Automatic annotation (TrEMBL):
GO molecular function: phosphoglucomutase activity; phosphomannomutase activity
Lineage of source species: Eukaryota, Viridiplantae, Streptophyta, Embryophyta, Tracheophyta
Similarity remark: Belongs to the phosphohexose mutase family.
Full protein name: phosphoglucomutase (alpha-D-glucose-1,6-bisphosphate-dependent)
PANTHER family xref list: PHOSPHOGLUCOMUTASE (ALPHA-D-GLUCOSE-1,6-BISPHOSPHATE-DEPENDENT) (PTHR42946:SF2), PHOSPHOHEXOSE MUTASE (PTHR42946)
Species for this entry: Populus alba x Populus x berolinensis
Segments for region (Disordered): 1-25
EC annotation from Swiss-Prot or TrEMBL: 5.4.2.2
Positions of the Alpha-D-phosphohexomutase alpha/beta/alpha domain: 70-211, 241-349, 353-453
Length: 617
């Protein structure tokens, strides 16, 4: 860790003698907090007369673009530390200060519109994961909130779901919250996620905030110094959040013999990946009576030295699987850095993530809410759709992006279509019963409750038995095409490529390919009414096509989408037929990319290599 603190928490059982650092250096946060905001030096010196004016306008435009490019859908993300080849630091303290100030103003303006009067003492909390840049960027957040006139509360090391819950659970109930994290990205990155009591902000809302922040940032082209009028108050919310999760397990298990320790007799392994998820071991599982010996990487370390904290990471899942088998555990849990995603390993050592995790959660939710609709992103398999329908559910496939999937569920519920589960293949999962919040810890809580209930009912099969009849796709491939463009033009060029793909498929220029669509709702089977009276904003363009031939019928699908993280287009393919993905790649290359001229603006190296050799790398 890059900071020290007078505040610490001793870890129980799993890491004796280790300390759990708080988020920021005490000297920074609890003295007269002051730091210089240094803007990048410009090259305007020596430029004369009217050309100087034009040059300065260009410089300001470029400075504003730097902030706008930090928007990452409904989040802000950027490079916070040097060390990435080919990337320079763009999420600097001045940038973060401007964004935090604009968010604070946005919160105040929203509350004033809602209440119809001037509001005072608007309270905003900040949590962060253990990244090394967290301390200095936290200071910038507090400075920005102070400029906006907000009162700031420092939660220290926290999780993304906990930040949202800090706006709801008493006695905290803040007006808004910010989580500082870059999820599973490298230690050099960092970012911001924003919440009010309504939930996470949407992409258009974050775009508005970044637009205002860009003007602030560009107007501060001189060295400035900021002193906080009101230093942030240090609070311990994570203990309250952990107690909230414990109470849910105790109440819903309602163990007939030991109510307060319903996990007694269960061995559960946690792999926190050195992120923020270690608390779940000592502050939830241990206190409920579980044995957690053998848990992995539960101490926070902003360098993430063991593996990427990501339930999709093969190393993370393999290490957790080995620990489950070695310790004869009942369950293994893998969290991502900020615990808004999770995956599990069953007692047999089978990894459960992606489609398998969605199927497991669907099986649990459909027992509780028969006939409910389940929303997923459009990269899930045809077999998952059959799994859900066979259990009486409805499956709505929607746009890739966890915020898109969750917002779709919210919209369907408003339209009178009962929708209790929204999940993305990445491991983001939200439930209607939990404020439509993507909370990896809460999802694990649901799985643990089901595991205990099965045991109490006399079953020793474990949670893996709930998905034993889920078919796996025969082939599944993901490839990337980089956009050949300057960063500022990459989004527009990517959009053109995706829309050209749509036109080619709609016009029947690719035989056997048909757009899988219903208005703004992407579905495979059991399409629901989607009125689109209030269509969601498009943060990244994407389309999915069903792929058929005379011999096999519909045997797969191909999905193209613009990345909101990087200047590229992701190509996902699945097929139930041998050689199906290879055939799709050849068709994509020959019938679309070359035929349309898109191979001139897209680097199709990966597509071409796979089409020729069947090799992904």
């Amino acid at each position: 860790m890059a900071s020290t603190s007078t505040s610490s928490i001793s870890l129980r059982n799993n890491a004796p003698g280790t300390r759990f650092p708080s988020s920021t250096t005490s000297k920074l946060l609890h003295s007269n907090l002051k730091f210089p905001l240094l803007m990048p030096a410009t090259k305007a010196t020596g430029i004369k007369s009217s050309s100087a004016t034009r040059y300065n306008e260009a410089v300001i435009d470029e400075e504003m673009d730097k902030i706008r490019r930090l928007q990452n859908g409904s989040d802000v993300r950027g490079v916070a530390l040097q060390g990435e080849k080919g990337r320079t630091v763009d999420l600097s303290p001045p940038a973060v200060e401007a964004i935090a100030e604009s968010f604070g103003e946005w919160v105040i303006n929203g509350l004033e519109k809602e209440k119809g009067r001037v509001v005072e003492n608007v309270r905003v909390s900040l949590g962060r994961d253990p990244r090394l840049s967290g301390a200095s960027l936290s200071v910038a957040v507090f400075s920005g909130l102070d400029r906006a006139g907000c009162l700031a509360f420092d939660m220290g090391l926290a999780t993304t779901p906990a930040c949202f819950m800090s706006t709801l659970l008493p006695p905290f109930a803040y007006d808004a919250s910010i989580m500082m994290t870059a999820s599973h990205l490298p230690y050099t990155r960092n970012g911001l996620k924003f919440f009010t009591r309504r939930g996470g902000l949407t992409s258009p809302e974050v775009e508005e905030i970044c637009g205002k922040a860009a003007r602030k940032y560009a107007n501060r082209l001189a060295k400035v110094s900021t002193m906080l009028k009101t230093p942030p108050e240090r609070v311990d919310f994570m203990s309250t959040y952990a107690k909230h999760l414990r109470n849910i397990i105790k109440e819903r298990v309602n163990h007939p013999f030991h109510y307060d320790t319903p996990l007694k007799g269960f061995q559960i392994i946690v792999n926190a990946g050195n992120g923020s998820g270690g608390f779940f071991t000592w502050d939830v599982l241990d206190k409920l009576g579980a044995e957690t010996f053998g848990s992995l990487h539960i101490n926070p370390d902003g360098m993430f030295p063991n593996h990427i904290p990501n339930p999709e990471d093969k190393i993370a899942m393999a290490l957790t699987r080995a620990a489950v088998l070695e310790n004869s555990a009942d369950l293994g849990i893998v969290f991502d850095t900020d615990v808004d995603r999770s995956g599990v390993v069953d007692k047999e050592g089978n990894p459960i993530n992606g489609d398998r995790l969605i199927a497991l959660m669907s099986a649990i939710v459909l027992r509780e809410h028969p006939g409910t609709t389940i929303v997923t992103d459009a990269r899930t398999s045809m077999a998952l759709t059959r799994f859900i329908i066979d259990r009486g559910g409805q499956h709505c496939l929607y746009r890739v992006g966890y915020r898109n999937v969750i917002d779709k569920g919210v919209q369907l519920n408003k339209n009178g279509i009962e929708t209790h589960l929204m999940m993305e293949t990445s491991g983001h999962g939200a439930l209607k019963e939990n404020y439509f919040l993507d909370d990896g810890a809460y999802m694990v809580v649901k799985i643990i409750i089901e595991m205990v209930r099965m045991k109490l009912a006399g079953s020793d099969e474990g949670i893996g038995s709930l998905i034993k009849d889920l078919e796996e796709p025969l082939e599944s491939v993901e490839l990337r095409m980089n956009i050949i463009s300057e960063p500022r033009h990459a989004k527009a060029r990517g959009m053109d490529a995706i829309e050209t793909f749509r036109s080619f498929v709609e016009e029947g220029r690719i035989e056997g390919w048909e757009l899988d669509s219903c208005g703004d709702c992407w579905v495979a089977d059991g399409c629901l009414v989607d009125s689109n009276d209030d269509p969601a904003a498009v943060d990244a363009h994407m389309y999915r096509a069903k792929v058929s031939d005379e011999k096999l019928g519909q045997h797969g699908w191909i999905h193209l989408r613009q990345s909101i993280h990087n200047p590229n287009i992701a190509v996902n393919m699945q097929s139930m037929a041998p050689g199906g993905c290879l055939s799709m790649a050849k068709t994509l290359r020959d019938k679309f990319l070359v035929a349309s001229g898109m191979d001139k603006i897209l680097d199709i190296t990966q597509i071409d290599k796979y089409a020729r050799t069947g090799l992904v790398k």
